[in-house]
Specification:
By secondary structure, the protein is mostly helical. It is built from two helices and no strands.
């Protein structure tokens, strides 16, 4: 079927996904730390950035793995 995704999930795809997930977490933490430093607040924006990074990572993981599942 044309346009159907390749059902093979190998090491390059998994490493790419891992890099994107790690980058999302690091960017969320980095932006939270940057805002906390600029605003003079304690860890509130760091925690918000962490939560946003986790939410983005989970969303990305679900979207990517649905390509390889039968649903």
């Amino acid at each position: 079927m044309p346009g159907a995704p390749d059902r093979n999930l190998g090491w390059p795809e998994l490493l790419g996904m891992g890099a994107v997930i790690a980058a999302q977490l690091v960017v969320g933490l980095g932006l939270g730390l940057l805002i906390d430093t600029a605003a003079g607040t304690s860890p509130i924006f760091l925690l918000i950035g962490l939560l946003l990074g986790i939410a983005g990572s989970v969303t990305y993981t679900v979207v990517e793995f649905r390509k390889y599942l039968n649903t």
